[in-house]
Amino acid sequence: MFIKRCFKHLAVSVVMVLLLSVGVVVATGQNSDGIWEDSATGLIWTVKDNGSDVGYNEAYAYCDSLDLNGYSDWRLPTIEELPAVFDKSVSKKFKAKGPIELDAASIWSGSMNSSGDVWSFSFSSGGKSLSPTRGCGSTGRALCVRQAGK
Predict the structure, then answer these.
(1) CB atoms < 10 A from the CB of 86, how many?
(2) Which CATH architecture is the domain 33-147 placed in?
(3) pLDDT for the residue 42
(4) Please, what sign has the CA dihedral across residues 114, 117, 123, 125?
(5) CA proximity to 102, closest of 88, 122, 84, 83
(6) Which residues of the chain fall below pLDDT 70?
(7) Are 146 and 77 in contact, with CB atoms under 8 Å apart?
């Protein structure tokens, strides 16, 4: 009787831990494939940047060739989309919403001005800046995005 009662409590504990673990994943919108859907914008983001500082062309190529979670329509976000995942109230070093974890502050956008300079966004300050794509040596990270429902 004692063993049966202990086994029942153990089984209930294991089930509770599993349910809580699944609940945490569902609550953040992140799945096991490293993506997160921002319900406020309807955009799906990778939860990690590309992992190293690169120039704009390399960042563009990284997202353009990314095949993740069965989707190959990843792209660099626009300069208007990046502030939507900035949250200065989070305690992370680089202030990204939800489960997004960045290893550097500067993230490339896919937006250019009329001179061909590219906008980047800082996840330290929440500011944006222009970087020439020619000969300057500017670097940043790629954080890829796609539209949900496609």
Answers:
(1) 20
(2) Roll (3.10)
(3) 95
(4) negative
(5) 122
(6) 1-32, 133-136, 150
(7) no
pLDDT at res. 134? 64
Domain spans in the chain, listed from the N-terminal domain onward: 1-30, 33-147
- Spell out the residues 6+ positions from residue 85 whose beta carbon is closer than 8 angstroms to its own: 38, 45, 96, 97, 98, 100
- pLDDT at residue 136, rounded to an integer: 65
User: Within a 10 A sphere around the Cβ of 85, how many other Cβ atoms?
Assistant: 24
Closest among 109, 9, 118, 116 to 63, alpha carbons compared: 109
Instruction: Determine the pLDDT at residue 132.
Output: 80
Per-residue burial over 33-65, b if 16 or more Cβ lie within 10 Å, else e, is: eebbbbeebebbbbbbbbeebbbbeebbebbee
Cβ pair 132, 138 in contact under 8 A? yes
Write the secondary structure of 10-57 as one string of H (helix), E (strand) and C (coil). HHHHHHHHHHHHHHHHHHHCECCCCEEEECCCCEEEECECCCCCECHH
